[in-house]
Write a structure and sequence with these properties.
By secondary structure, the protein is mainly alpha-helical. It has 13 helices and two strands, in the order H-H-H-H-H-E-H-H-H-H-E-H-H-H-H. A two-stranded antiparallel sheet has the order 1-2. Helix 2 runs parallel beside helix 4, helix 2 crosses helix 9 and helix 10 crosses helix 11. The chain is globular and about 60 Å long. The termini are far apart.
Length: 316
């Protein structure tokens, strides 16, 4: 496979965009529809990465890499889903501040465990040995194929989110997010619905974390910072929390603009690539987020189509 025309940095940047879009889509179901402010995205993302990585690299598997990889991937996804189930059980009946503190605390706990459990996770040194479950010839070809694989996974996540919007289950999520006491008074299983939504969303975040770890081929606790959660939230808010396409558009604007256009195609001084560009990125993200919240609080795409339709029907 001849990929001389394709820059390796572009593959890496596009991969980050695709993963962020996937996280944004899962967060859209929780925050955009059900109003669960999950500030622990990086925690579920990280626990999926480490559960997968530790099992894949530490176990002496009696069969080939492909089966070892798939079993470890399923394990990482299940651990993240179970963690989401437990955290969801603790926070499902809390107010917004309680949900924020609970999910943020979980993410902090995951980062601390990744740093302190030296014998299992490699501690601050990190954990290496991750590899692709195939070899098609060159590193660039392997990474490009992995970009395609993860893009297909995120496409399935998008289709699932699109399907949820058009089902009674999606209307249940919206009703719980809009007025949970009213939904409960009508006999809707609000607690159980939020619990399973949180578990499924967390499992998806863990899956993306494991897939991301394979691309990096190394797990390090410094990659479990709050910036992962903030990037997913900022992307979703800018694109539109109430729309599935909001995560897609926001993801390409948040990471695609700086990591692809600014760093790859603008003639910037070399010394900027150390500290200046990351700092400028955070400043611009903050400014854009403030502007969006002030003048377009529902994001670029605005409210759900059904809500706009109802307002037109009632002449509002």
């Amino acid at each position: 496979m001849n990929l001389d025309w394709l820059d390796a940095f572009l593959i890496s940047a596009l991969f980050s965009v695709v993963v962020l879009v996937g996280l944004g889509l899962l967060l859209h179901l929780q925050l955009g529809l059900t109003r669960i402010a999950n500030f622990g995205v990086v925690g579920f993302f990280g626990i999926g990465r480490y559960s997968f990585g530790v099992l894949f690299t530490k176990v002496d598997w009696p069969f080939g890499d492909l089966w070892a990889f798939l079993i470890s991937l399923v394990f990482g996804t299940l651990v993240a889903g179970l963690s989401g189930f437990l955290v969801g059980w603790l926070i499902a009946d809390l107010d917004e501040d309680g949900v924020l503190v609970g999910t943020l605390g979980f993410a902090t706990a995951v980062a601390i465990l990744a740093t302190t459990e030296d014998g299992l996770t490699g501690g601050a040194r990190g954990l290496g040995g991750l590899r692709f479950p195939y070899d098609v010839g060159t590193v660039k070809a392997d990474e490009f194929l992995w970009l395609i694989v993860v893009s297909i996974v995120v496409a399935f996540i998008f289709l699932y989110v699109w399907w949820v919007h058009r089902t009674p289950y999606g209307r249940l999520l919206i009703s719980i997010g809009g007025n949970e006491p009213l939904a409960k008074s009508l006999g809707k299983p609000a607690f159980r619905t939020k619990l399973w939504l949180f578990a499924v969303g967390s499992a998806g975040m863990g899956l993306l974390g494991a897939l991301f770890g394979v691309m990096e081929r190394f797990l390090a606790p410094e990659n479990l910072g709050i910036d992962v959660t903030l990037a997913a939230m900022v992307a979703l808010v800018i694109g539109g929390t109430a729309r599935a396409w909001g995560a897609v558009i926001g993801g390409f604007l948040v990471i695609g603009f700086f990591d692809i256009i600014v760093q790859s195609y603008l003639p910037l001084p070399k010394e900027w690539y150390g500290q200046a560009i990351p700092n400028i990125k955070q400043i611009v993200f903050g400014a854009v987020l403030i502007i969006v919240l002030l003048f377009r609080p529902l994001g670029i795409l605005g409210d759900m189509r059904r809500d706009r339709l109802m307002r037109r029907v009632h002449g509002e």
